[in-house]
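Methods — Computational structure assignment.
A single polypeptide chain was analysed. Its primary sequence is given first, followed by the predicted tertiary structure written as structure tokens.
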Amino acid sequence: MLKAILGQVKEFKRDSLLTPVFMILEVIMEMVIPLLMAAIIDNGVNKGDMGYIYKVGLVMLAAALLGLAAGMLGAKYAANASAGLARNLREAMFENIQGFSFANIDKFSTAGLVTRLTTDVTNIQNAYQMILRMCVRAPFSMIIAMVMAFTINGKLASIYLIAVIGLGACLLLIMSKATRYFQQIFPKYDDMNASVQENVSAIRVVKAYVREDYENERFTKASGNIFRMFSKAENILTWNAPLMQITVYGCILAISWMGAKMIVLDALTTGELMSLLAYCMNILMSLMMLSMIFVMVTMSMASAERISEVLGEASSLANPENPVMEVRDGSIAFEHVDFAYAGGSEELVLKDINLEIHAGETVGIIGGTGSAKSSLVSLVSRLYDVSAGAVSVGGIDVREYDMETLRNQVSVVLQKNMLFSGTILENLRWGDKEASYEECVRACRMACADEFIEQFPEKYNTYIEQGGSNVSGGQKQRLCIARALLKKPKILILDDSTSAVDTATDSRIRKAFATEIPDTTKLIIAQRISSVQDADRIIVMDNGRVADFGTHEELLARSGIYRDVYESQTGGGDFDEEKGGGE
């Protein structure tokens, strides 16, 4: 875990090494000042030697300025190193997430990933900065101060030693009780982020159903859980301050009382007593710093574990040793394919699928909710790997292809259409970043998107809000289809991608496909029989199996499932499929 985190320090190693050096220099200057102060009192003030006072005073000033400069440089390098570590961690996690397969993504919630990239990284950043500065400064300061105190007077210095041991034991007990609360806090952040994310992304639904009060209550509950956990931890930590003060004042009283007696007996000078009191504060403040470091490190360890989970997560899909770099054509074959989402699960989503689809063929896919239509097509572009059997594209097992090559030739328009913030042109060029304006317009014409784009004042430069919130569902679907067409794929998969489009527009899109991209294999998952009845062949899915595969006429004649769907839709009845998309 620590290796994964510290491995991201990279180019900030120099700053990470310089910080402790300057912290040590600062501590040395701070430790020298009480000795100089004792010399001024004993050899200057008591003897009335102003020249000595000026001379040593200048040395003290130089030491103070040098310590100040060292502290400032240490703070600068620590801030740079910690911010750099945070940047590298976020970049490394984000880059690793981009390589995740769908199976990897299924293991992490979206809110959990957001928390890891934000709150958890910030905790690591703060802890790393504190470690670089205080983890060197505090113990080094305490050790040197203790050595200096024993050098001046061992009897009085033993008071510090007893105080440090006692205070250290108390602080350790406090920390151990607070730790378990800190470890429970960060999963609560995931819950709160999930509440925020769902509410913001679905704000129109919330308002349409007048559920603002419910959402407020839900967020308040999530936020309240974090508040309660932090309150419990902080209430325990509040004992740090009074214990610290009691110890400091107790040491000062004991040293002052015993030191005064020793001064009377000429066993101690006034300057030495002042130095001992200064070292007392140094020792006990260093111990207090160490306690705060322990709190921060405890909090950050939970964050470090969560971050290392993401960094250590290897994609369940990988390129073969010598991948195939060209897809010959759009033919597809399923050979005794079984598939389950959870690794090793006995609950198969697809069972013994055997299909052969020719290049350039248009194939419709229909079936009830949960019949695994989306799961079937997700195997074509290798978004998941099969559990058994094989899926071939262009006569080659998809596991033998370079994944980028394969996915560039298999264009998928998913059930949940997603547009990104930016202009229409910028969104379209996700399909082909080098696409010309004319190619974008042509793709939009095929997808019947040009008719509404031309009505916008800015036309193709119209700005799309995040998630496509400023366009309708049907418009969003047509833009996503146009984006997929720009890839000029050998296989085009439309996963219920015209459900929000009227039947006339749906028909025009299908006709454009037939005339404009005849050589592209087209797989069309649809809820309406009218969307697939003109396909070359139609797959009927039922409970993860291929119930039948044939033309519209053949299925009407022999498939009871298909005939029931057809009659329920053409006869005006309600069919379960019309109420919602597949899986």
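Note: Residues 572-583 have pLDDT under 50 and may be disordered.
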